[in-house]
Each structure stands twice: as structure tokens, then as C-alpha cells.
Design a protein that fits this description.
Strands 3, 4, 6, 7 and 11 form a 5-stranded mixed β-sheet that branches. The chain has a 3-stranded antiparallel β-sheet with strand order 12-17-18. Strands 15-14-19 form a 3-stranded antiparallel β-sheet. The protein is built from 6 helices and 19 strands. The longest helix has 11 residues.
């Protein structure tokens, strides 16, 4: 049996299976609306019928190695042409989330239609990653907690300064092994400033998470100062001058 540097054992007879992807319209915990003109939601049974082409995610090797499994929920916005315009992870282990995002961003849908013609819509895609074993006793009791204890999380290396009066948007970033941003989920903040916050954080520099000698994808919660709101309030208070 192979061993890692941490002394954990991994049976060679374990094999992995992606059980499937499906659409669900369930409330997303911690989601912040993106504006007054959000795309319409489709009901679950209707949204399933709109899928023209789907891509099954590959099971990440590092997730297999560490016995990581479970569900990833992705919030999807589909354009009038049926392409995925936005895909943001709502919840799910970072190793699995990277694979889910990569696949879902290539999905193709039949556009929703209204009286005025095709329109954007929004829904949630759930991807379930499931491991199966020849011997039940091969699965560790707390694989995710075991891995988390071994991972050194990402760090912010450089970010621009901001005004002391700036408001902020709290984002959960999915930082890539190269130190880039793969995705951002809104945790808190005014919907009007979410897009600006995402643009600003794209210019930050990060040190990626480390698992031993390997760089790995991982989440990092950050506060992103946004200058627009205080400036607008100051202008309004001065009578617009």
C-alpha cells in the first residue's frame, strides 16, 4: 500500500465514480442578489429539459487520493443564446469545485423564451462526486478534516490601498494552484457593488494554498473595499456639486 508523507494509507482497490449532474432550484445559503434585474429562475423540471449539451466532470486525482467526495452546487446564469455566462460555486469542496466549474462552463442550454423573445435565466446545477470501495472499511471517518489540517491556506500578497471611508464586499475566492482566482462567491455586501468588487480583487496577488510540496486550489475569504458607495453619498450630501 502506498503512503503519503503524513503517514496515511491509501488502498489500491479504491475506485471513483461521478454519480451525476442535475438541476435544482433550491435556496442558496449566503447568496446576495446581483441587482434589480436579475435573470428569471426556472423551475427544476423545466430547467432540466433546457439542457442541450452537458459535460461530466472528471474526478480530480487529489480528491480521490484524499477520499474527498460530496456535492458541489453551482449557480448558473444562461444567456439568451443558451450559453453559460456566469457560473459561481455556492458550496462544495475546493478540489471538486474546480472540476465542476470547468465542466459546467461548457454546457449548452436551449434559451428560455418570453413574449419579447429569448431571455436569460438562472438556476442551480448540483454535481455529485461519489467514491465506491470494494471494502467499506477503507474510507476514513473524517477525510475532509484530515486534509484541511494538512493544507496551508492561500494568502494575499499584494492589494491596492483604499480609503478609510470605503464600504466593502465580502467574497469567498477560489484560488487556483497558480495563485489566480478561479471563482468568487458573494458572502456579504450591497448587490450594486458586487461587480466592482470582483473587478478590483482580480488585480490582487495571492500565494496559493499548499499541501505538502504541492500547490492546490482552496478557498479564501476576503473583504474588498469599494470606493463607489461613499463617493456617491458624499456627492449627494453636497447637493450634487
Amino acid at each position: 500500500m502506498a503512503r503519503t508523507s503524513g503517514g496515511r494509507w491509501y488502498g489500491p482497490s479504491a475506485w471513483a465514480l461521478v454519480a451525476g449532474c442535475w438541476l435544482g432550484i433550491l435556496p442558496a445559503v449566503g447568496q446576495v442578489p446581483t441587482g434589480d434585474a436579475d435573470p428569471v429562475f426556472l423551475e427544476a423540471k423545466k430547467a432540466v429539459k433546457f439542457v442541450l449539451r452537458s459535460e461530466t466532470p472528471e474526478y480530480p486525482p487529489l480528491a480521490k487520493l484524499n477520499y474527498i467526495q460530496g456535492r458541489v452546487r453551482v449557480q448558473v446564469v444562461v444567456t439568451r443564446e443558451g450559453r453559460v455566462q456566469e457560473a459561481h460555486v455556492v458550496r462544495g469542496h475546493p478540489f471538486l469545485a474546480v472540476a465542476a466549474l470547468k465542466a459546467i462552463r461548457h454546457w449548452l442550454f436551449r434559451p428560455a423564451r418570453a413574449r419579447a423573445g429569448p431571455e436569460e435565466f438562472q438556476t442551480y446545477v448540483d454535481v455529485n462526486f461519489s467514491l465506491r470501495f470494494k471494502k467499506i472499511g477503507q474510507l476514513p471517518q473524517q477525510p475532509e478534516k484530515d486534509l484541511t489540517r494538512q493544507v496551508h491556506p492561500p494568502e494575499v500578497l499584494e492589494r491596492p490601498g483604499s480609503s478609510a471611508n470605503a464600504t466593502s464586499v465580502r467574497l469567498r475566492l477560489l484560488v487556483s494552484p497558480e495563485g489566480g482566482i478561479l471563482d468568487s462567491q458573494v458572502l456579504q455586501g450591497h448587490a450594486r457593488y458586487v461587480a466592482e468588487a470582483r473587478q478590483l480583487v482580480a488585480h490582487w496577488k495571492f500565494r496559493p494554498a499548499r499541501w505538502g510540496a504541492l500547490s492546490v486550489p482552496w478557498y479564501l475569504d476576503v473583504e474588498v473595499p469599494v470606493e463607489g458607495w461613499p463617493a456617491a453619498q458624499a456627492t449627494a450630501g453636497a447637493g450634487g456639486h
